[in-house]
Specification:
The longest helix is centred in the C-terminal third of the chain and has 29 residues, at 195-223. The chain has 224 residues and is α/β, with parallel strands linked by helices. The relative contact order is 0.09. The mean pLDDT is 90. The chain contains seven helices and ten strands. It has helices at 2-9, 37-49, 83-95, 108-115, 152-170, 173-192, 195-223; strands at 18-20, 25-27, 30-32, 55-59, 68-70, 79-81, 99-103, 121-123, 129-133, 146-150. Strands 1-4-7-8 form a four-stranded parallel sheet, with helices on one face. Helix 2 packs parallel to helix 3.
Length: 224
């Protein structure tokens, strides 16, 4: 009812409702949490689609617990959804004409692997930000030692890794392998905070992606 009312106020654009995976879905027929979470998300997508919603956000709300959107493995209890589940939900949303933004503790490696799915978009905060000293009205707050501010380098790396993942899934095997190798070197350097390697491989990956995009659009034009 809330989505329906908001869409009546804003008939020409979507208010982008959000589904928090750590809350699940309560409906007349039951509760969709845990292993039933994908079913709840799909039911929610069905509902918002009926009211003309075209963009949604799927996220986590309780960041302090350390829970995150993606599982690292089948036995990972800190994540809510596997990559395969994300792919199935994404396909369901596309069939309904809905674009999904994905968020929830996503890191640089997540940007790369989710790029392979050709997602509409991801929402990354902490991984693309640096801690800076507080200022202004907050400087007297003893419990707030710093705030997160997106960095140009962090945002650019997220963009490059997302594009690299997309291109790896779309380009011929030899070119895709070359991009994947450099991406993995960059991700390993990010894991160890190896600044010189991060700078060098970020530049190398950006160059490969530029060439990759040129190949991709030529290929698309040939089949278009």
């Amino acid at each position: 009812h809330v989505v329906e009312q908001l869409q009546e106020w804003l008939p020409s654009w979507s208010a982008a409702p959000v589904f928090f995976v750590d809350q699940g879905l309560l409906r007349d027929g039951g509760v969709d949490v845990g292993s039933d979470l994908p079913r709840g998300i799909k039911a929610w997508l069905d509902i918002v689609a009926k009211h003309g919603v075209r963009v949604v956000l799927i996220d986590t709300i309780d960041k302090a617990t350390g829970r995150r959107l993606l599982k690292k493995s089948s036995k990972d209890n800190t994540g809510y959804l596997s990559l395969k589940q994300v792919e199935r939900i994404e396909n369901h949303a596309r069939a309904l004409g809905i674009n999904v933004l994905w968020a929830g503790g996503l890191g640089m490696r997540d940007a790369f692997v989710m790029g392979k799915l050709g997602l509409f978009g991801i929402y990354v905060t902490s991984a693309a930000a640096t801690i800076i000293p507080v200022g202004g009205a907050y400087i007297r707050d003893p419990g707030l030692s710093g705030v997160k501010e997106p960095s140009k380098e962090g945002v650019l790396r997220t963009k490059i890794l997302l594009e690299a993942g997309f291109l790896v899934a779309k380009l011929p095997e030899d070119t895709a392998k070359e991009i994947s190798i450099v991406a993995e070197i960059l991700l390993a350097a990010l894991d160890t905070s190896d600044a010189p390697t991060i700078t060098r491989e970020s530049t190398a990956l950006a160059s490969l992606c530029l060439t990759g995009w040129q190949m991709y659009w030529k290929k698309s034009a040939a089949f278009g």
